[in-house]
Amino acid sequence: MRVPAGESVAAAVLVHALDHTRTTPVSHAPRAPFCMMGVCFECVMEIDGIANRQACLVPVAEGMQIRRQHGTGRIDE
Amino acid sequence: MSKSARLAVIGAGPAGLSAATLAAELGLDVVLIDEQASPGGQIYRALAEAPAKRIDLLGDDYRRGRALLRALHTSGAEYWPDTSVWSLDQNRTLGILRAGRAAMLQFEQVIIAGGAMERPVPFPGWTLPGVMNLGAAQILLKSAGVVPAGGTVIAGVGPLLLLVARQYLRAGVAVKAVLEISPRSNMLRAAPHLLRATAGGSYLRRGVKYTADIMRAGVPIHYGVSRLRAHGDRHIESVEFASHGWRGRCDRMLATDSLLVHFGVTPRTSLVCAAGGRLAWDTSLQCWRTQVDQWGNTSVDGIAVAGDAAGIGGAISAEHSGRLAALAAASSLGHITAAERDRLSHADIAWRRKDLRIRPFLNALYRIPPEFLVPDDATIVCRCEEITAGQIRAAVREGHTDPNQVKFLLRCGMGPCQGRQCASSVAHIVSATRQIPAAACAPFRVRPPISPLSIEQLAELSMADE
Amino acid sequence: MTNATAKIFDTVIVGGGLMGSSTALQLALAGQRVVVLEKDHPGRHASGSNAGGLRRLNRHPAEIPLAVAAAEMWRNIAALVDSDCDVKLCGQVRVAESTADLEMLQKRVALVRSLGYEHEQLIDRDQLYRLVPTLAPHCLGALYAAGDGFARPYHTLTAFRRKAESLGVVFHSGHRVQALEQLAAGWRVVTEHGGFTGRTLVNAAGAWADRICALLDEPVPMTVGAPMMMVTERLPHFLDLVVGAASRMLSFKQMQNGTVLIGGAHLAAHDMAHETTAIDFTKLRESARTVRALFPHMKSVRIVRAWAGLEAFMPDRLPVISESARAPGVFHAFGFSAHGFQLAPIIGRILAEHITGRPGPLRLEAFRIERFNTTNAIAESQ
Questions:
Q1: Within a 13 Å sphere around the CA of C85, how many CA atoms are in the beta-carbon half?
Q2: Which end of chain B has fewer CB within 10 Å, C or N?
Q3: What domain range includes position C281?
Q4: What residue spans define the domains of chain A?
């Protein structure tokens, strides 16, 4: 995926029309970015192996690994 | 990282920019702290980097921010972008996160200019992907030039619906409908305020022009919309609503894979709450705001709030209140006398008063009807923990009569957003269920960190006195 | 203020927290008419904000009989309050990170055995890592109590309150005690909403219990502390047990919903004038370092919230469970020093037994209020 530098991860995934960016840990319902300003925490994704990162606050970087988060996400390391 | 700054201004929107700029010009040692990568707040988001074509599309209200950015640049204020604030206590110790490192810094004065957020209004289906805040869509447009490619429905209250619909039409986006939920009875409520609303006439004229432009493009505008719901399985597929025209109610369904909603904005209060500052329920705004004096001083010594975080006044009013807070801080720190402060503040006080005159009119005209404030039992209110209005009502009836008890029992407001998306809805539901004024409900107690901090960041936290 | 409407009860309980509610429930079961007066709302402070630990492990010897009896009640708590209170009896461990720790735990086991109890045992390294696979690899063994665990505090309090209400107990929120008046046979408790009269008065006022004592002219060396807690975002399941450490302040558990609750009785700053607490980040940092040392995989996990609840502490860290030494018909239950939650069911039963004149076999000498007036006060331990 190629996106302009400086853009947020959330903007990048929305451009590429991912229909949802996470499922909830409670009911596994699909969710997508909602506020784009760091308030609602709906956009959390697994970014570079770390779960629960707010995609609307993280700028895209070269080689970044972005994964849809399922429920609680995984804890690596 | 400078530890000697005496004034911290939090938030680089119009209030924070003008506060930091004036304070620095008055000789204060000031640092402007902002979560975003570039200054401007949400209103002037990404203004410094936006291409000319995008700025043209967004218009003069957006372009206006350039002067503020220039002024900051020459003021000498220190500016920390990409820095989030996760704690503030009554001693003005600020917890910040910058470049992945957490630190606590103490300041002599703090001005919170955290701005507003879009009012969360729960309705059936509002959690479906494809449903997004209209302001969020504006942020996408400002920062990334992104628009809903497949067309959209715009719903909610107020002039932003028309403004964005018009921008989208100019950008070639198909706007399928504009759904305005404020009932016609609001006009009667608003009319008495019109005389005092200085800019009321030009405001209404602009509204008429936008409306005409949108209708000329063939976009239906529905007024007095109720029973709004988004349908879809894993993503929104359609929006259902009832429109109330002169000929009575009409139920409608529109196929769409995008619904943008906007129900006005409410002050962001987490940080001032964390510091123990008092809030007041604003019956006109239908939400909490910070209790402040004319300078923006909160109930906590040395902590002021400027701009929309104190109560909604809009971008221009925010500039004035930012300057007033800066004058008060300069006077508290002894850089100017109280007499100088008063003299320097005349123009801002006058302009701000004039600018705010339209607010009672707007608040009345775009008052959210009870149906939207107090949702049906099945509607999710707490997006994080997926708690429904019905569960909240049941908890209240079982004797958990205060929002904080509801939170303890249901975890409503205990998720990562810390209640930002459900606090006012819980207050409305508690108030409606108990038949007491919302003002009688206590706001959620805010617990630090107000934005999450990792174990590693906390373990490596550097303290103010180390 | 005169009060025409009779507000006359057998027992008036001051404090709507878990101790007060548990006592109210047991008294109601014994047929008493009871009123509970709560200055805020039930669970506003310690009872709503504690860690919910159900721990016999490493209790003061004087508390062991109470904790063991309470554990019996927790095992079947639904029979008492019609709700399981989200009890999870998953076991608790106290890990040893050094040979010195291990020796300390060995002594502990010997002590518990000598008192005739079997609930605590020493487990070796292999057993420990089978129970807690994500623990950092340097630990050597642990003290283990298989039947310990945790419950959800506010749910537990609600269950006790609702059961008590169903038996006729009256709870009044927003009723702060202003004065106590001794009557010919009992007490009149004055609040801004009127007076409440009872033959017996119970002081279960938590962090405000010393003020009730002061009204009774029975001063106690109680202090107030606010143990801090923090909770993470939801995580995939990785931990069944509650984990503590022999030489660190830690209580670490994963809740049913996946969040991890981290405590350890580091104290927040507090302000009794405003009844508020303020997180002490230097100490919270210590807590995070402990977590990082024992659960390195938690490094990038995020803390969502930290808080602290106001609690009463006694100099010897043992509660006061006692008839008043000065005021007839007054019973005290306070000063649980941040480990009262597990004891609550048995405290209610013991107080009800004493109030109704049918004391059971559990001995309360160590918890008498008079101990602070004598020179042979029980030495602080733990």
A1: 35
A2: C
A3: 92-146+227-308
A4: 9-70
